[in-house]
Specification:
The chain is of the alpha/beta class. Helix content is about 45%, strand content about 15%. It has helices spanning about 30-60, 65-85, 95-115, 120-145, 170-185, 250-260, 295-305, 315-325, and strands spanning about 150-155, 190-195, 210-215, 220-225, 235, 240, 245, 265-270, 285, 290. Strands 1-2-3-4-8-10-9 form a 7-stranded mixed beta sheet, with helices on both faces.
């Protein structure tokens, strides 16, 4: 069931049909977008200067530090807020608390200098200016960076049931070969390898090896469990064998990723059983997870992704990698 025939996909574009070498055209950068980035970076620099003056000079005027050191403190506040935005830490509780504490410290210095509460508004205004200009400059650049690496973006490969690095099994190698043939030349696709897993219960069949395919703004988890040889059956969100019920871990992980992303429609799960006696005629659904041969699964991914195959989204890929820590 891992023999993939690309000719069955109407969306498939062979490698030799895509321009390459000197005839290949690099993606055009729109002049308006370039101008926007330049303006965003200038605004970020201006926001830093405003922060240095508005939050730093009060420190010098109340005699806490000298003027150069005070201005450096103001610049430092701007850079701290910018770092929290670039790392997306400001979206977390501790990052937001850290940003508000720095803003509160700046407001306190302004109050001690001015003696009235109204100028204290300058501190939260500086925070907002730093946050917005950093996002518009660095955030946009991160989300639109070009593709320079191969199809495999990051690897979290472990031996089955172990935590040390080890060799991949034959099924995962064939799966990666099929993914490379289908998506290796498409700009909007990345593949992340996740650890091989086993069920924690004794006498249970190996669960699977798994791969995550990120296409544009969607995450697609592909698992290849050795099901079928010993009578295992998939029943909704559970695996039934010899009268015992085991968790369908693929379903659980898809649900966990959906909760983490907050975009349930952009996270999908696929199971490719490798030991079934008969190949299903079409891909099926059970418990929110799709089941079928590898050809059917890759066909469904390409058809559902559509134009996203050639629209990379680096920022979304980084968010997916961050969420994969739930599974690793």
């Amino acid at each position: 069931m891992l023999d993939v025939d690309p000719t069955l996909w109407d969306w498939y574009v062979p490698v030799h049909d895509r321009p390459s070498g000197p005839d290949a055209k690099s993606p055009r950068r729109r002049p308006l977008f370039t101008i926007f980035l330049v303006v965003a970076f200038v605004a970020w620099a201006v926001a830093g200067a405003a922060t240095a003056a508005m939050l730093g000079l009060p420190l010098a005027r109340i005699g806490a530090v000298s003027t150069p050191v005070a201005l450096l403190c103001g610049v430092g506040m701007h850079l701290v807020w910018s770092a929290l935005v670039v790392t997306r830490s400001i979206l977390r509780r501790w990052g937001l608390i850290a940003a508000l504490l720095v803003a509160a410290a700046g407001a306190a210095c302004i109050y001690l200098d001015a003696g009235t509460p109204l100028p204290m508004l300058g501190s939260p205004l500086c925070l907002i200016a730093s946050t917005l200009t950093t996002y518009l400059s660095f955030g946009v650049v991160l989300s639109r960076s070009s593709r320079e690496d191969g199809i495999i973006d990051s690897s979290f490969i472990t031996q089955v049931g172990a935590t040390s690095l080890g060799s991949r099994n034959a099924d995962i190698e064939r799966l990666l070969g099929a993914l490379t043939g289908a998506f290796g030349h498409r700009d909007g696709v990345r593949v992340i390898l996740l650890p091989d897993r086993v069920t924690p219960r004794p006498c249970a069949a190996l669960v699977r090896s798994q791969v995550v395919v990120i296409v544009g703004r969607s995450v697609r988890l592909i698992a290849i469990p050795p099901l079928g040889a010993d009578g295992l059956e998939i029943s909704g969100t559970e695996i039934v064998s010899d009268g015992q019920v085991y968790r369908n871990v693929v379903h659980d992980e898809v649900q966990a990723l959906r909760r983490r992303f907050g975009r349930g429609s952009e996270v999908h799960g696929y199971v490719v059983p490798t030991l079934l006696s008969t190949v299903p005629t079409e891909i099926g659904q059970a418990g929110g997870v799709s089941f079928g041969s590898l050809t059917q699964v890759l066909g469904a991914i390409g058809k559902g992704a559509g134009p996203s195959l050639d629209r990379p989204n680096t920022l979304f890929r980084h968010r997916a990698l961050e969420s994969m820590t739930l599974l690793v």
